[in-house]
Amino acid sequence: MRKRRLLTAALVLTMTMSVPALDTDPAIADANGNSATHNNKSGADTKPVLVARSWCASDNLNRIVSNDPPYYPGCKNTTDRNDTRLLTHAGPNTPSGEDWDAFRVDSGCKVWWQLKVLFGLLTIDQDPIDRRGSWVGVWVRVHGDQTALIIREECGPVDDGVSNSPQPQNPPWEPPPTQAPVPPSPPASIAVKGNDYNRDGVSDLVGVRTSDGCIARWKGNGGGLDYIGDYGCGWENYTELTAVGDITRDGIGDLVAVRRSDGCLARWKGTSAFGFTYYGDYGCGWENYTELTGAGDVTGDGIGDLVAVRKSNGCIARWRGNGGGGLDYIGDYGCGWQNYTELTGVGDISGDGRGDLVAVARSNGCIARWLSYGNASFRYVGDYGCGWEKYRNFAGLGDLNKDGVGDLVAIRAADGCLARWKGNRNGGLTYFGDYGCGWERYTIA
C-alpha cells in the first residue's frame, strides 16, 4: 500500500490536474513549495493545522471522530516512521506530495478541504468541517487509498448575533471624566479578575450586605474565603458594583459602581491592606447599561478592562483601562446580549493569559463561553452545561485555588450556599464544592 501511495504522489506531481475553483485566492507558497500563509477572510484568526498519517477511516460513517489518534501523540503503526503528526498551513500546496490520512479541526475553527481519489487522479471538493459553534474539536479521516488536501482554515467567532463583532459604532454617549462629591461612607471592595486586594497572590471577594449596606470582605486562602471584617457602609446607594481589575497599574484590584441618584460611575482605588480609597467619578449616563463586568485584561496591556450591555439595543460595549484609573471606550462587540444574564468576567480559563467571559442563556439556563483572543475580541466556544438558572450573583475570580487559572463562584438560589467552580485551563469549569451558606444576604463581586 505504501509503494502504491508513493507512486500515486509521483503521478500527481507529473500530471496537470484541474482543481475546482474556490471562493478565495490560493495560499501563498514559499520557495520550497510549502504553504506560507492561510487563505483567510479579513478579521478571522488562523493557526497551523494538525495532520496525521496511517490513521485511516474504515468507512464513511466512521470518518469524523472526536478522540485523538492511537499512540498519541505519535499516530503511527508498526510499519510507519515516527514523524506522523505535523503542524502545517492550509493551501493547495500542502501537504506537498504527501499522503495524509487525517487532519484536526479545532473548536472555534472551520476547515475547507478536498479529497484525492483514484490514485490521486481526481480531486473532489468536500463539505467544510465547521467547529466554530462547538467547544470540542474533531479529527477527519479518509480511506487508506485516499488523500486529504487542506484548502483553507478560519478560526474566529461564528456569526450568531452575539459572538460576532460588528463595525465599531458610537455609543449613545461617551463618558468624560468628571469630578463628583465624595461618598458619605468609606468605600470598600468588590471582586475582580486577579482580584487580589492584599497582594498575596490569591483572589479575594467582597459583598454588600443587604440589611445594612455595609461591604464585607473575604480573603482568599487558596481554595476558600476567610471573612476579615467590613469596610464602610452606604453602599446601598450604588448599583452594578464591579471588580474592574487593576486600572491604576499598581498591582492591586480596584472597584467601580454606578450611583443610583445620578448614574455616574464612582471609582475606588485598592490598597495593599484590602482597603479602598475613593478617587472620583468617571462620567455619567452609566444607568443606560446593565451587566457591568470587569473582564480582566482583554487587550493585552496588563490593565483591567470593562464590558457592559447597553439596555437600549442589547449590544455589548467595551472600555479599555488606561492605567491612570480611567476607562476609554473602544466600541461595541455584537448585539443580542440581552438574551443572557449573569454576564461575568471569569478570568483566564483557557490558559492563554487573557480574560474570558461566561453568561447564562435566559432561554435554557445553559452557560455560554466566550474566550478572548486579543484586541478586546471574543470567540464563542459553545456552552458548558445547563441548569445554571438555579444560581445567581456570579463572581469571576482571577485565581482562588492557586493553580493560575480563573475560577467562578455563585450563590445557589435554593439554599443560599456559595458554589465554586475551578477553571480547567481548557475553557471548562469543574465544580469543587460549596463554601458555606447564608450568602443570600449579600451581593458579591
Question: How would you portray this structure in words?
Answer:
The chain is 3% helix and 37% strand. It has 1 helix and 29 strands. The strands form 7 sheets. It has a 5-stranded antiparallel sheet with strand order 2-8-4-1-3, with no helix packed on it. Strands 5, 6, 7 and 9 form a 4-stranded antiparallel sheet that branches. Strands 12-11-10-29 form a 4-stranded antiparallel sheet, with no helix packed on it. The radius of gyration is 26 Å and the shape is elongated.
Question: What's the arrangement of secondary structure elements?
Answer:
Elements: H1 2-14, E1 49-52, E2 64-65, E3 85-88, E4 102-105, E5 109-117, E6 122-125, E7 129-130, E8 138-141, E9 147-155, E10 205-209, E11 215-220, E12 225-230, E13 238-245, E14 254-259, E15 265-270, E16 276-281, E17 289-296, E18 305-310, E19 316-321, E20 327-332, E21 340-347, E22 356-361, E23 367-372, E24 378-383, E25 391-397, E26 407-412, E27 418-423, E28 429-434, E29 442-444
Antiparallel strand pairs: 1-3, 1-4, 2-8, 4-8, 5-6, 5-7, 5-9, 10-11, 10-29, 11-12, 13-14, 14-15, 15-16, 17-18, 18-19, 19-20, 21-22, 22-23, 23-24, 25-26, 26-27, 27-28
Average pLDDT metric: 74
N-to-C span? 62 Å
Percentage of residues in helical conformation = under 10%
DSSP helical segment count: 1
N-to-C series of helices and strands? HEEEEEEEEEEEEEEEEEEEEEEEEEEEEE
| Global shape | elongated
